[in-house]
Design brief:
Strand content: 35-45%
Largest sheet: 8 strands, antiparallel
CATH topology: Alpha-D-Glucose-1,6-Bisphosphate, Chain A, domain 4
CATH architecture: 2-Layer Sandwich
Shape: globular
Number of domains: 1
Radius of gyration: 15 Å
Number of helices: 3
Order of helices and strands: EEHHEEEEEEH
Oligomer: single chain
Distance between the termini: 26 Å
């Protein structure tokens, strides 16, 4: 996995041994998203999604110990299986937080899929660091989920 920061915008790249159509579905279908979303140890017990430009989503996240918290946003671009863009904001107001834009681009590379994620701009380095850690864990979980999904097919 490759990562670097451009200002306070997160950029991650990863290659998955899975078709782009499956990677896109894993990033957009609530039942599949719940299998991997969030940092290690977290669960996502509630995901609502209206997958269309202008549609909204809401994800409930549960840390290993602690209360549920929520993130929400609006889809800005939905182009299966190549591209997905949406706003991202935590529902709990925090003065160090602001809405960011997440863009996921998928490109077929042989039998694999190159996954490129950009998110930002972040208000603080601390917020950037939290999201970097969360996405890094999440992509490891996504890789495991994709393997499991392919094993069932």
């Amino acid at each position: 996995m490759e990562a670097h920061s451009t200002g306070l915008t997160l950029h991650l790249e990863h290659v998955f041994e899975a078709p782009a159509s499956l990677v896109f579905r894993a990033c957009t279908e609530p039942a599949l998203l719940a299998q991997w979303w969030g940092p290690a140890g977290f669960t996502s017990p509630g995901i609502e999604s209206d997958l269309r430009v202008g549609g909204r989503y809401r994800i409930a996240m549960q840390p290993p110990e602690g209360e549920l918290f929520y993130l929400t946003g609006e889809f800005r671009e939905v182009d299966p299986p190549d591209r997905l863009a949406y706003t991202f904001r935590w529902e709990d107001p925090d003065p160090d937080d602001r809405e960011t834009i997440v863009t996921i681009s998928l490109r077929v590379v042989g039998e694999s899929t190159e996954f490129v994620l950009d998110q930002g701009p972040f208000a603080t380095q601390a917020r950037y660091d939290l999201h970097h850690a969360g996405w890094t864990d999440g992509l490891v979980r996504l890789e495991e989920a994709l393997r499991s999904m392919q094993d069932r097919e």
